[in-house]
Write a sequence for this structure.
């Protein structure tokens, strides 16, 4: 069935560096959601993208949905220690199930 | 609103014992989901309910797992008998109206089966 592949699996950066995680699907997605999970915490919804080519910003976070609606990215500018955590994309699979990518774990060296 | 409430936060049990995880969704939400999170398999959808009715349980690993939602404000996930490979964090989540809506997750239950 449809899967959402997320890369990279891990990313370690120096504080102040940028960070990007990518989510890819072999099929067209109706929409895509992004979540953040802090260490020891639970996933928290960040944003949903619906339109082809959509770009949304939340402070230092920029979310993009590809023109073909098969890929998405989350970019963080000038990371801070509060950005530490695992970032997940999620999309509806076939029979109306919300499926999560494997996540990208971000660690930051202060 | 208190959000999605799960109990217990931590559960340590011995292999073969019955385990019951509990969830109270956000009032007014029509959908309730049970996810399992492990390092190896990530976040896996086990089962979800719409208006208290189980819609898709294809993610339930085997017959040892069962889930119920007797009313709109309560759901349980039961494992009987439990096995060490069931050790994971189990999340309950709820959402409004449709599958495309954002999920609100509970704090999870950390299950350790010895």
């Amino acid at each position: 069935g449809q899967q959402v592949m997320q890369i990279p699996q891990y990313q370690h950066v120096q504080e102040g560096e940028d960070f990007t995680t990518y989510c890819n699907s072999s099929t067209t997605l109706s929409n895509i959601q992004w979540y953040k999970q802090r260490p020891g915490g639970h996933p928290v919804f960040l944003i949903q993208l619906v339109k082809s080519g959509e770009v949304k910003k939340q402070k230092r976070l920029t979310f993009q949905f590809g023109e073909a609606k098969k890929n998405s990215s989350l970019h963080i500018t000038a990371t801070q220690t509060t950005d530490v955590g695992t970032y997940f994309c999620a999309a509806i699979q076939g029979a109306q199930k919300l499926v999560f990518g494997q996540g990208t774990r971000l660690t930051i060296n202060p | 609103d208190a959000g999605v409430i799960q109990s217990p936060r931590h559960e340590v049990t011995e292999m073969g014992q019955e385990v019951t995880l509990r969830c109270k969704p956000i009032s007014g939400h029509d959908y309730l989901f049970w996810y399992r999170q492990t390092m190896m398999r990530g976040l896996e959808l086990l089962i979800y309910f719409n208006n208290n009715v189980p819609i898709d349980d294809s993610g339930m690993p085997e017959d040892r797992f069962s889930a119920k939602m007797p009313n709109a404000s309560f759901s349980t996930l039961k494992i009987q008998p439990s096995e060490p490979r069931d050790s994971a964090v189990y999340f309950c989540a709820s959402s409004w109206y449709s599958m495309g809506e954002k999920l609100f997750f509970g704090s999870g239950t950390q299950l350790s089966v010895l």
Summary: The radius of gyration of chain A is 13 Å. The longest strand of chain A covers residues 85-93. The mean pLDDT of chain A is 94.
